[in-house]
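Hello,

Our lab assistant flagged a job as stuck in the queue for most of the afternoon. It eventually completed. Since we weren't sure the result was trustworthy after the delay, we are filing this so someone can double-check. Below is the sequence as submitted and the structure that was eventually returned. Let us know if re-running is recommended.
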Amino acid sequence: MTETADVLILGLGPAGASAAAEAARRGCKVIALDRKLEPGLPVQCAEFVPAMIDADVAGYVRQRIDAMETFVEDDAADQQPNFPGHVLDRAAFDASLVERAARAGSDCRFGRRVVRIAKDGVAYFGDGSVIAARVIVGADGPRSRAGKAIGSVNTEMVETRQITVPLRCAHAATDIFLSADIPGGYGWLFPKGATANLGAGVSSEHRARLKPIVARLHADLRERVGSEVLATTGGAIPVGGMLRPWGRLGKALVLLAGDAAGLANPVTGAGIAAAAHSGRLAGEAAARGAPERYQEELEDVFGPAQERALRRRRELLEKVPSKAALRRGWIAYPEYWQ
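-- returned structure --
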């Protein structure tokens, strides 16, 4: 039998859970599904968000961040003291957003994998279930099934690898490592209390270099972090800029949010704030049936920052970058904003 809903949401990360809560609060019958077995797990995220994120993160902060230290090749760190933010417990944060969506009236289900979205907008799942909805919100990540169905596909990706390691001494800054040997990306150390997330991202064509890059960072930082690897994760980040965030399949309207819409920053890869904000806008647009207005809102909010980041990213990819080019391509330096 085919279930029906006003809004079907694919993915229950920050984008999908925010969309589910907003659409349900506006009176829609919402079914929201995620292929994971429980919210936020496994974590595939560096877990850092800037302090200005438009979300209530107070109960999910593992550590406050006050500054940024940027290492360009073998130079000493450049100190940027006014870069506040938070390193989250991402699994707990995601779970809280799902709980809010459920309290608003959304039917949230886990362990459900979409296998096909037909041309008439009907969605088919691995457990044999079939759901038809007036609106589909694709919040299902950078390789979105919903996006593929309407021809909005992320083609530029950064692949990441991250390890969690013991932190020997307390640290209140995010550390960024820029190098021509980390092509199309950067390395990071994000402290979270007694441990830290240590990782790197590179353009997808260089993914085979990720493991040795992270191993080298780990070895170079041995005076600051322990040798034990407590966890390993990774994933893809879209870095090609915003896609057309809506389309139609038969009578069904399809909206894309978060990474599915290409909203991660093309330079930093940051996407949590964009996911949560775009999800709320998508839930509102789903209830109103106003896709053009949704696209305009996304362009207004994210367009200028994404355009600058895309320019800087493409400048870096044109040739092997010098130290000056690496600084111009990173948000902590005045050159980036010129």
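-- support follow-up --
The delay was a queue issue, not a problem with the job. The result is valid. Residues 48-86+156-238+323-337 form a domain with the D-Amino Acid Oxidase; Chain A, domain 2 fold (CATH 3.30.9.10). The longest strand covers residues 157-166.
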